[in-house]
Structure to design on (192 residues):
């Protein structure tokens, strides 16, 4: 017999930190483009001063990140980026502008800290920019430590990644975000 505690433990075991996945992909791209070891990439390392990246290197980095993440960056987006940490934050913010496929639908539950877990705030319907903002506003209103669980249809890893990219910024605001495929046995969960 599987208990709710077992299900939660299994969810934690298969959950992948979305922000961590983004950072690891950024790390690999930066190391490849700039020809440095990924070990030197910590949050405070300066791309220009410490890694000797010039404007051509930064332009190559922008193209490589656009390709790796499928995200469009404004031409001026990299103008203010000085450190590796700022670069990772830029990629995370760019995910908020990811175009949403029309067929995405969600079932979401927002559980405030100290709230009744049996009666979370629920949202169901198409995952539109408006729905993404409404979920974010509701979760932020509930406060730090709020858990936002989102189930995505169609139940594909791509759909999970698209929704995760849209909501990843909430992690930096103290919201515990979990995105998973809807009604898919054994599919991976994405914990942001």
């Amino acid at each position: 017999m599987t208990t709710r505690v077992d299900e939660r433990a299994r969810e934690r075991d298969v959950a992948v930190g979305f922000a961590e996945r983004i950072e690891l992909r950024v790390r690999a791209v930066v190391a490849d483009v700039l020809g440095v070891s990924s070990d030197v990439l910590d949050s405070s390392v300066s791309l220009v001063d410490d890694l000797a990246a010039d404007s051509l290197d930064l332009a190559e980095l922008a193209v490589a990140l656009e390709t790796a993440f499928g995200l469009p960056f404004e031409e001026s987006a990299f103008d203010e980026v000085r450190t590796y940490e700022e670069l990772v934050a830029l990629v995370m913010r760019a995910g908020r502008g990811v175009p949403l496929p029309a067929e995405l639908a969600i079932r979401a539950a927002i559980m405030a800290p100290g709230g009744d877990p049996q009666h979370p705030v629920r949202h169901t319907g198409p995952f539109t920019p408006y729905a993404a903002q409404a979920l974010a506003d509701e979760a932020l209103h509930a406060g730090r430590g709020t858990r936002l669980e989102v189930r995505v249809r169609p139940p594909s890893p791509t759909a999970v990644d698209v929704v995760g990219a849209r909501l990843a910024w909430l992690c930096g605001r103290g919201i515990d975000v979990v995105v998973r495929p809807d009604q898919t046995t054994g599919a991976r969960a994405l914990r942001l």
In short: Strands lie at 16-17, 105-111, 121-126, 147-153, 176-181, 190-191. The chain is about 40% helix and 15% strand. The helical segments are 4-14, 18-34, 55-69, 84-94, 129-142, 157-167.
